[in-house]
Write a structure and sequence with these properties.
This protein is an alpha/beta fold. 41% of the residues lie in helices and 22% in strands. Strand 5 and strand 6 (107-113) form a beta hairpin.
């Protein structure tokens, strides 16, 4: 199975000046755990996750003044739609993160998460187990 089979094509993009509250609201409304942060001043591409928001709040920072840009991870590992799910899972396990931005022709076309991979693998694993039981 490939990343294109599992990825969400609903890519929430925000700017670095969005507050964490605005970012969290948008992530909640779209039911996603991460947002791609596009910085037009630097042409940079990063990711803000729900964990980044949680860590900021835990440090006592205000979600109304803390910005996405200040909490964005810019050292990002990118996937392509042609990666296997095994490649994606390996990258996540070795990097210690749960989301990969999927790029095609240099543009974000999707996000794949650990949850997406599990959703795809669970039926396959279940069917394989049932075949072995027969």
């Amino acid at each position: 199975m490939l990343v294109r089979d599992a990825m969400s094509t609903v890519v929430l993009t925000i700017g670095p000046t969005h507050t964490l509250r605005q970012a969290a609201r948008l992530m909640s409304e779209r039911r996603v755990g991460a947002a791609v942060v596009l910085d037009p001043d630097t042409c940079g591409l990063g990711i803000l996750t729900e964990r980044d928001v949680l860590n900021s709040v835990a440090l006592g920072q205000s979600p109304d003044t803390a910005t996405a840009g200040a909490h964005t991870t810019t050292d990002v590992v990118f996937a392509t739609p042609a990666w296997t799910l095994e490649d994606a899972a390996d990258a996540m396990a070795h990097g210690g993160f749960r989301h990969l931005i999927v790029l095609e022709a240099g543009e974000p076309t999707g996000i794949v998460s650990v949850r997406d991979i599990i959703r795809c693998w669970a039926p396959v694993r279940r069917a394989a187990a049932q075949e072995l039981a027969v």
